[in-house]
Amino acid sequence: MLAKSSPLAGLFSRLGSAGIPSSFARKVLPSWWDDEVAKEPAGLQQAQLYFSRAFNIDLQSLADRTAEPRFRASVKKFKLSQNVSEGEVSVGANYATGIAKLALSGVDSKQKALPKDPLKLRQQILQTHECVSLAGLLDWCVSAAIPVLHVEKLPGKKMTGLVVRDSDRFAIVLSKNGHPAFLLFHLAHELAHIAKGHLTADGFVADEKIRGADSSDADEKEADAYAIRLINGKDVAYHAAGRITSGPALCSAAIARGAEQKIDPGHIILNFAHNQRQFPLANLALQSLPGPSDGREVVNSVFFASLSSDALSDDQFDLLKAATGHSTALA
Known about the structure:
The protein has helices at 7-17, 22-25, 41-55, 59-63, 86-104, 118-126, 134-143, 180-195, 218-232, 247-261, 265-276, 279-288, 295-306, 314-324; strands at residues 75-79, 148-150, 161-166, 169-174, 203-207. Strands 1-5-3-4-2 form a five-stranded mixed beta sheet, sandwiched between helices. Helix 10 (247-261) packs across helix 11 and helix 10 (247-261) packs across helix 12 (279-288). The chain folds into three domains: 7-63, no CATH class; 75-232 and 302-324, no CATH class; 247-288, no CATH class. 44% of the residues are buried. The chain is built from 14 helices and five strands. Helices cover 50% and strands 8% of the residues. With 331 residues, the chain is of the alpha/beta class.
């Protein structure tokens, strides 16, 4: 048991005062870690470094035992639902930022510019894919050296997505679970924040909820519009000419429309559900849709396959695996 007066116990206590439970903080320590290591000054410094990197905390504030842990200074934009405060999202956003920065160290340092016009990006993706699907959009992100990963468990309130800018490079963290079609729109929305220049300096844009944040937020409106045009090629709200009463029928109609107009059928189903308030029917339709059903696995499989084997240490790779819940070994 960790003695209450030990330096590591004090460090855990200070992290707790910053909103990071000790049970969560322990998850960022490497698999080989033993608390005995922190009894030596060098070992304690090593623990401080792990926590600093994972939670985007200023290292000096962790080294000073009399100071409160201080998140690194940067531009912070929060896109929140009503009745949700920045404080509820801040700790999770900083953790996601730390993991995103680590992800950036594992990919090519030179990123490809993101087209400001969503139709140009759509045209690029359609050169190699039948539609702008989650897999197609992720493939483009890999070609652009923009890492995209899914981090399900966060300290504090969960977010839908987050864009990080670090030394003029971008990374995206998604956090909500669901069908790939859900994460397709979330990713398109986050890419829009990059394309439209909503983050002009190092920092992050944290979307606590997409299509549920402040409806008067100009950035959110612009990001939603970009995402819709990227996926569909136009502004569109789907509806049915006749009454659709079963999930398989909605699925079949979406597949037919998608093949005709080069649109992801899962997106058509969810767009229809959003505009017609038919969410139970949409969930049944998604169950009938061929292909992967877990968006997390799609995102993280592509992410880990894109990492450079010699750009990350074993400890860094372990932290990414722990953050994503992914079991893939680095080749």
